[in-house]
Batch of 2 targets.
Target 1
Amino acid sequence: VTLDPGAMGMFGPSGAGGWWPLWLWTASLVLVTGQETKLNFGHEMLSEFGLAKEYTNLNHGSYGATPLAVLERQQEMTRLTEANPDRFFRYEVYDLLAAARRAMAEYVGARVEDLVFVMNASEGINAVLKSLLGLGRDADHGSSKRVLCLDLAYGMVKEALGFLQDTRGVAITEVSTDELFPVAAAADFESRLMAKVKSALEEASAARRPIDVCIFSHITSMPAVILPVELLSKACRSYGAKSVIDGAHALGNVPLDLASIGADAYVSNGHKWFYSPKGTAFLWVSPRLQGSTEPYTNGHIYPLITSNEGKGETPYTKLFSYEGTKDYSGWLAFPAAKAWRLKYGDAEIIRYMHTLAMQGGQVLARAWGTQLLAPAELHAAMVNVELPTSNCTRAAELSHELLTQFHTWVPTVEKSGKCWTRVSAQVYTELSDFEYLAGAVLELLS
Ligand SMILES: Cc1ncc(COP(=O)(O)O)c(C=O)c1O
């Protein structure tokens, strides 16, 4: 894989007005074209973000990073809120939220009335799981439900299921993926994973204890791999199970078309890869399940018909529109985040990140004499590389040492008996950042 600026749609001043110093060129473009200024992907892009100068962010995947232009829009929304709280909360916020939801729905191939905002994937997943498994208005209270997940499910998902197991008698089937890693060929991984999931669904069905709900990550957290969510949803549907997709890492990281996935519910974060501010996520629920889907807070909009609070196209969207006084500014900056992405080109961003992640992963594996966990087809912008130690307790200490001694941070995980790190590429990272990490880890382990 090579990083070819032309092929990756890089932008920049090269060739145009070449005798100008770079800073003058950039500054003049800002003055003349304002929003339309485009910088080259790589370190030049750091000026678009608020990251500290000394920090090398190789962990965009955990919390994302928001462009300054998007934060400026969020601050405008905060100023609007503070200028006249009554006007904002009583008359303006719902229409502004609807416009932001429309912008998001268009981007992910969904109908606006099926998509609501939640603070983060944790809130969305908890709301939908609790609704499907016993808390919703039309839910089948009392009968014990069965859920299928993978051992790759995010910790929060496993803990939410554990809570439902302890408090609602929900039974959990966890499918192990340990023997599938490291992956040599994506197609082989996919078919072996599908065989395992289908066999667990079949076993439950044969024992007359069919699975009610399946939950899968679209892109798993640690280690990070893309899962075949269309096939997984289809398999669950064929056994009468509903599918919930935890797409926390998907929005902005891979092209997303919710209609084609065929899930019953889908949650994604904006703050990870879509460049929206922290605390911005969406929940999409298929129309047939919206009647039993409840937000976290029920005190404001009940009964639905007579409540004066909230506003929405349907009872479901109305329920999620108001959960008390809180900061709506992040969601209202969604359209600005979308505009920022489109300015740089959605496909170009995704391609640059993926190409850099794979090339950076090779740099690390070569420097450490190790291997990548999976081939390129299973990766978006995060790559997993085996660390040059077999002591995973020691490996886990590296993250904090990297932060305090090298101003960078990457997570570590033990999978299939080996220690791995997950490294994120972004439009503001370059191959030299991966080289820096390679050296830092070798120094810490020496
Ligand atoms: C797969 C997955 N799901 C859910 C989450 C939770 O996201 P949040 O902390 O924004 O709720 C994460 C966070 O890293 C994740 O990786």
Target 2
Amino acid sequence: MVNQHHEIYDVTIVGGGPVGLFTAFYSGMREMKTKIIEYLPFLGGKVPYFYPEKMIRDIGGIPNISGEKLTEQLVEQAMTFNPSVVLNEQCTELEQRDDGIFVLKSDNGSMHYTRTVILATGFGTLKSIKLDVANANEFEGNNLHYTPKRMAHYKGKHVLISGGGNSAVDWANELGAIADQVTLVYRKTDFSGIESHISKMKNSSVNVKTPYIISGLSGKSGQVEQAELRNLETMKTESLSIDEIIVNHGFEIDIGPISRWGIQMENGTILVNGNMETSIPGIFAVGDIANYQHKLPLIAGGFNDGPIAVNRAKQFIHPDKELTHLFSTNYDFSK
Ligand SMILES: Cc1cc2nc3c(=O)[nH]c(=O)nc-3n(C[C@H](O)[C@H](O)[C@H](O)COP(=O)(O)OP(=O)(O)OC[C@H]3O[C@@H](n4cnc5c(N)ncnc54)[C@H](O)[C@@H]3O)c2cc1C
């Protein structure tokens, strides 16, 4: 069903990654009515998508934290001021009405009305490259995964991994220690990626098969049971019984819709000034998508972008009011 959200928000943050989440917290603390719109069915952006179980060690004051824990804490912090959260929607169109209100339209037809927009879209929406096997979607989300589940899920199982990049090799190495058996197929013979990780995999119990692809799948009740593997040199096929499949063929980034909104961009990123203002007044960009001199694509850097954008958004909405700086230690969280 298409929702028409006629309520007007002060700030609408497109993208619920780490930077969008922290920006939502800060926007709430500046007492602005805030909404987050996220394409994925979950919040956290690249962190839970790519590295939920990896340790992050380059955020000040946090010596180490897993991607999953960081996401959990960011979501908790972002919800402090109860922003509206819309999941499973890709913002595809943006217009500005004569009265200055921005109208964001999503891929499902929903409309969102807002005084300012903060784009925290990373490099765009993340879409995994799908396995090129006709019936693959029958098993997707059951025991065929594009974004792997928690490690413990694979304990004692026979896991088939398809792919040859860093992520596929990392997964093979990590699962080698926990799964009953790991088989990795890759269509080329030379792996790209970090050499030490590749050597570790080749010298481990992981059954590495190159140049091989998954050419067929069979199973029942939505569960893959057998994978057909094709040797691309001999073109012979063989069958393998498996419990789980992880497909790691990379992902496509769809910056698409935003690049058509008339905002000045460079190499797939949005040009901003020191106030995180884009070329369209009232639209700001923060995090990985924001491009300014000496920009580093780090989570910690994005945490600085957000408050700057929020403060400017507040001034944009209330041009006559003087904006004083606000520390969280000065804010009354009991009200
Ligand atoms: C493997 C890997 C390891 C990393 N390790 C570290 C590390 O150790 N330390 C560190 O600081 N950084 C690390 N990074 C970088 C870090 O993940 C990024 O800098 C960070 O995620 C940027 O946050 P963001 O919120 O700007 O964007 P993202 O995390 O990319 O989130 C953007 C969100 O916007 C959504 N979106 C995009 N377009 C739309 C749209 N049109 N409509 C609705 N939603 C949309 C996307 O679905 C996504 O969820 C790593 C990155 C990778 C890939």
